[in-house]
Write a structure and sequence with these properties.
The complex is a heterotrimer of chains A (about 475), B (about 500) and C (about 100). By secondary structure, chain A is mostly helical. Chain A is built from 21 helices and two strands. Chain A has a domain of about 200 residues. The longest helix of chain A is centred in the middle third of the chain and has 32 residues. The radius of gyration of chain A is 21 Å and the shape is globular. In chain B, strands 1-2 form a two-stranded antiparallel ribbon. In chain B, a hairpin with a 2-residue loop joins strand 1 and strand 2. The N and C termini of chain C lie far apart (about 55 Å). The chains are: A mainly alpha (about 475), B mainly alpha (about 500), C mainly alpha (about 100). At the A-B interface, helix 17, helix 18, helix 19 and helix 21 of A face strand 1, helix 5 and helix 6 of B.
């Protein structure tokens, strides 16, 4: 099983380097093959964790606190599975998406490889400093992906993203330094029993710094300013990777710290993330309803959907809330990847990227529009999608703890999402204007988008297995 | 999986599979598409017949899947569900035939028939749901699969109709979900059971249960066009005639009414609902809807809009029946679920015939159409007389039982409401019949698409379905006491809800 | 009372960090923002080095963290500079343009 852990980190590093050596735009096939293998590894790990419990592996035989440890429990195994499960279809999509001479596609493969490696390492990291390193790796790779091959808008968006992410990890690193100063260790497992409710003020500051830094990286309102330009102007496969996976990584970290070392201190502040999450839902949805460009609309939708994740914090005393959060991460990841993929197809085919220009798409790109619709179903929380399961779990947990307002916010969010989703669908059903030309698109693009969206809906029928995995291994 | 387990799933598959295959076929494969449609409809009919035989013999059909810890996707086939299923299946077959004729040569038929099949699958799921969770899933799927049908024509007007439709149904769905999650939280499950499941809850929950009732009824009441949630229905008339027929006789509106029946009878139970004082307000709301719908219908010149408001009014007969405490009222409501379906679909088929054949969309254009299209107008007349509750039609049977039930429950005012409604129905239907049969025809019809050929006043596929349903309307009125009628069925269901025998 | 060297490191580091953050957030000119980011990093490194000096034998763990941090900061600075140069080549600007929508 240690080979599985190592493989998940080393394999993407290997194909990223290989892609770089092979030259611009040539890394597609090794990437796809390796990702398929990685998916198998992640599945093996998930099975192993659910049967045997959490795994720990000291790299090189040097254990904590000096060495680096890799640890996998139910939550990490689930995130790893999600990671590979989204990256693989997106890699197939990207291969068909980037034409041979596309400047954006030139450096996509090595950067994507480093991104995946960083994410895998992040989910397996067991100490705070290692987490910092992986966060930075992910952040820099993501910025590179946003900037690659782009014009002024894209580079400016990438710079904005870069500054935000550097601020975030800077704050986080300071927090790690303060924690080390207080307790002399950065290993999460060792810290757990050490931090108590009477922790020194230094730890409170550290917690706040880590919270702010990671909130910046997760684009939680009001730190979301960098996300719409970055996700809205990047090429479709990049936007999909970013919205589906990268922002979830820092959220995963917030969850880990909240439930782990900082747990005794967190209880006092738990309504803050929920309030900000609610603000994110309303603000993001409002901006999505008003957006003129399609990808900007989808990016603002991400801002709103991330807000749902933060609604669970006051409710974490009940297991249902954590399950709701994980289900929402899965639902949103799959659906948003599918939605950006579908948007990419539409933009390629119609040659323009506004919502108004979508008239008649339903007849020319039915599979793509169906993919968009299915993804929209998940985002709206309509049954039988996984988004609906997440909403159900959240509302149930809220009612069980008497937190009415959270249930109302979640329901209102679903209706707001319906407004901007159906804005797109309605436009697509309008009769096509005369002379509107649609360029042919490779079928691979349409069907990978469909596969991602369909998975987000079908996952709703098998929530039990996922819940079991998350609950296992501690 | 045993036979009793996969039969419900087969019912779903019999329309889901053809639907998916239709989406995969190119637009030009008309013949194959027709074959798939009909094969699916006939297969479903055969399955329903098997299920009826089984349920009558005491077989239990059902299957469940765990979706979340403690929450199941569960199907069962009971008498009430079968009632709705049979109605839907037979009317789906007829509407499919009608739609094939109506959309002859029209564009985008692949999309139409694909979503049509999905819509029926959702309806089957609703009828077979064994708990509110499963009911909700298919209820929302019904919303999603009917939206593309409403906006099928792709015009600005169609979009506006579709937007209003969504606004109402999604908001209703949110209310419904709130009620369901709350109920699940209080009780631990939401399984349907004869005579309700809530009697065991202590009285400290009475306030919560009342609010939950309002949420649930509001949620299903949108689709059931209960005042004041009915606004979407006339706007949805922008859809093609087969869609209006389906929406108003079979799928959407009846799903809402069916939901009200399930909630009142099998979640709350009639006795418990009465003890909480919930039935009287519901009855009053139903009565308001009945009168309001009929009044609005009087002022509509557009034929389909007039029929839409008539539906608003008539579906609330079902709600009224359920809200009248006592088995007689419940029987009246249930039997009207079937009867209204048959009668209204007849009227909509005829309206579609007038539009397709002669370009008639308004009542004022119908002068003398009885001479040009006698068979269609005969069917229309039978349907209209049924709506009025004229003896020897299905509508009369429903009215008799509803009135008896109201009297038995001490709600004489409801009898007055029913009589007023009959008069209003006469007021807006009789003028149409008068125009159609007695006035001279105009020199030229608005747009004659289909010329008459001997006795074939219009295409055969457009003519036969309404004649069939008109005949059924008369049959139900002539032979109410026969064993295999909706009435006998409704009696069976009411007996299990009230746990008593009912004298004929 | 004379503050210990550890405290001096800590306080200075904190102030430098705060200056750096303020710079990144408030300054418009991109090159200066990058410098501010480096300042921010230096502040954190100062604190870490100060932590390393608390015991008689210097603690290697914070020093290792500083080394790693420096490497990361260099890489990030390089990326930032490359992007700023690209922006300048494409648009002639050295400040970020207004976000379009």
């Amino acid at each position: 099983m240690t080979a599985v852990l190592i493989g998940l980190i080393v394999l993407p590093l290997a194909w990223a380097t290989l892609a770089f050596l092979l030259g611009p735009g040539r890394g597609a096939v090794p990437a796809i093959v390796a990702l398929a293998v990685q998916l198998g590894l992640a599945a093996t790990l998930a099975h192993g964790v659910s049967v045997d419990g959490a795994l720990v592996h000291p790299v090189g035989g040097w254990g904590a606190p000096l060495g680096i440890e890799l640890a996998a429990d139910g939550l990490s195994a689930a995130m790893l599975l999600l990671n590979q499960a989204i990256a693989l279809p997106l890699a197939i999509y990207a291969r068909a998406y980037f034409a041979a001479d596309d400047p954006a596609g030139r450096h996509f493969w090595p950067l994507a490889g480093f991104l995946v490696a960083g994410l895998n390492a992040l989910f397996l990291a067991a100490d705070l400093f290692n987490l910092y390193v992986t966060l930075e790796l992910v952040g820099l790779a993501a910025v590179g992906l946003v900037a690659a091959g782009g014009g002024t808008q894209q580079v400016a968006a990438a710079l904005r993203y870069l500054f935000a992410t550097l601020l975030g990890s800077g704050a986080y690193l300071l927090a790690v330094a303060l924690v080390y100063g207080a307790y002399g260790t950065v290993s999460i497992a060792t810290l757990l029993p050490l931090v108590t409710a009477e922790a020194p003020r230094l730890i409170l500051i550290a917690g706040a710094l880590a919270g702010i830094g990671l909130a910046l990286k997760t684009a939680l309102f009001p730190f979301h300013f960098w996300l719409p330009p970055a996700h809205g102007s990047a090429p479709a496969p990049v936007s999909a990777l970013l919205s589906a996976l990268v922002v979830k990584a820092s959220f995963y970290l917030i969850l880990r710290l909240w439930l782990g070392p900082f747990a005794p201190l967190a209880a006092a502040a738990d309504w803050l993330p929920a309030t900000l999450g609610a603000a994110a839902i309303f603000w993001g949805s409002w901006q999505a309803i008003r957006a003129v460009k399609l990808k900007r609309l989808i990016a603002y939708s991400t801002v709103a959907q991330l807000g749902y994740l933060f609604l669970i914090f006051p409710l974490l005393a009940q297991t249902g809330a954590l399950q709701a959060g994980v289900m929402q991460v899965f639902a949103h990841g799959l659906a948003k990847a599918g939605m950006f993929a579908a948007a990419g197809v539409i933009i390629k085919a119609t040659g323009q990227d506004t919502v108004a220009g979508l008239a008649g798409v339903v007849e020319r790109l039915p599979v793509t529009l169906f993919a968009f619709g299915l993804a929209g179903m998940t985002l709206m929380g309509l049954p039988p999608s996984s988004g609906f399961l997440a909403k159900w779990l959240l509302i149930e947990a809220a009612l069980a703890q008497g937190a009415w307002i959270i249930a109302i916010v979640a329901l209102a969010g679903g209706l707001l999402a319906a407004i901007y989703i159906f804005r797109v669908l309605r436009q697509a059903f309008l009769l096509a204007p005369e002379g509107g030309d649609v360029a042919p698109v490779p079928r691979t693009l349409e069907w990978t988008a469909f596969a991602l969206s369909a998975t987000s809906v079908l996952l709703g029928l098998r929530g039990v297995e996922l819940m079991r995995l998350v609950g296992s291994g501690g | 999986m045993t036979t009793n387990e996969w039969l419900p799933l087969a019912v779903l598959a019999s329309s889901l599979m053809p639907g998916l295959m239709i989406f995969a076929l190119p637009e030009s494969r008309v013949g194959l598409r027709t074959l798939l449609n009909l094969a699916g409809a006939l297969a479903k009919l055969a399955l329903v017949v098997i299920l009826i035989a089984g349920v009558a013999a005491g077989e239990r059909y059902g299957v469940r899947f765990a979706v979340l810890p403690g929450v199941d996707l569960a199907f069962k086939v009971d008498a009430l569900g079968l009632l709705f299923m049979t109605l839907s299946t037979i009317l789906w077959l007829l509407t499919t035939l009608y739609a094939i004729g109506y959309l002859e040569g029209a564009p985008h038929r692949r999309r139409f028939f694909g979503f049509f099949s999905l819509c029926v699958t959702a309806t089957m799921g609703i009828s077979m749901a064994a708990n509110l969770f499963t009911f909700f899933i298919f209820y929302e799927l019904l919303t999603l699969s009917t939206f593309p049908l409403v906006v099928h024509r792709g015009t600005g007007k169609a979009m506006r109709g579709g937007t209003i439709y969504l606004a109402y149904t999604l908001a209703g769905g949110t209310a419904l979900l709130t009620g369901i999650v709350w109920l699940n939280h209080l009780l631990g499950h939401t399984e349907f059971a004869d005579a309700g499941i809530l009697a065991g809850l202590g009285s400290e929950h009475a306030g919560s249960l009342k609010i939950i009732f309002v949420l649930l009824i509001a949620g299903v009441g949108v689709k059931a066009a209960l005042f004041p949630l009915h606004g979407w229905l006339p706007q949805a008339m922008v859809a093609p005639a087969p869609v209006s027929a389906l929406l108003h006789a079979v799928a959407v509106v009846k799903a809402g009414a069916f939901g009200i029946v399930r909630i009142v009878d099998e979640i709350y139970g009639p006795e418990f609902a009465q003890s909480l004082g919930l039935l009287q307000p519901l009855a009053v709301l139903a009565a308001i809807t009945i009168v309001w719908g009929s009044c609005r219908a009087l002022f509509q010149d557009d034929l389909k809009k007039r029929l839409a408001f008539s539906t608003v009014s008539q579906v609330s007969y079902i709600t009224l029946g359920v809200a009248i405490f006592g088995p007689l009222g419940t029987i009246g409501g249930l039997v009207h679920l079937v009867h209204q379906g048959i009668m209204k679909i007849t009227l909509f088929f005829c309206a579609g015939n007038y539009a397709e054949t002669l370009g008639i969309h308004k009542v004022s254009e119908m002068n003398g159409v009885g001479r040009r299209m006698p068979l269609t107008t005969l069917a229309f007349s039978i349907g209209a007389l049924g709506m009025m509750g004229v003896p020897l039609t299905a509508g009369a049977i429903s009215k008799i039982w509803l009135s008896d039930g109201a009297r038995a429950a001490g709600m004489e005012w409801a009898v007055w409401v029913l009589w007023t409604s009959s008069l209003l129905n006469a007021a807006y239907f009789l003028p149409i019949l008068w125009r159609a049969w007695t006035r001279p025809a105009p020199l030229a019809w608005p747009e004659e698409h289909i010329p008459a050929r001997s006795w074939r006043e219009t295409a055969l596929l457009l003519l036969l379905p309404p004649l069939f349903t008109a005949a059924a309307t008369v049959a139900a009125g002539l032979f109410p006491d026969a064993a295999a009628t909706p009435l006998a069925w409704a009696r069976l269901i009411a007996e299990s809800e009230y746990q008593m025998r009912i004298a004929p | 009372m004379i503050p210990t060297s550890g405290t001096i490191f800590a306080v200075t580091g904190a102030m430098v960090f705060a200056l750096g953050v303020a710079g990144v957030v408030l300054i418009d000119h991109l090159l200066r923002r990058i410098l501010a980011f480096n300042l921010m990093g230096s502040g954190i490194f100062l604190i870490l080095v100060g932590l390393a000096q608390r015991h008689d034998v210097p603690d290697p763990v914070p020093q290792a963290m500083v080394l790693t941090g420096i490497v990361v900061a260099v890489a990030a600075t390089a990326l930032a500079l490359a992007l700023v140069r690209k922006l300048h080549v494409l648009s002639g600007r050295l400040t970020l343009p207004e976000d379009g929508e």
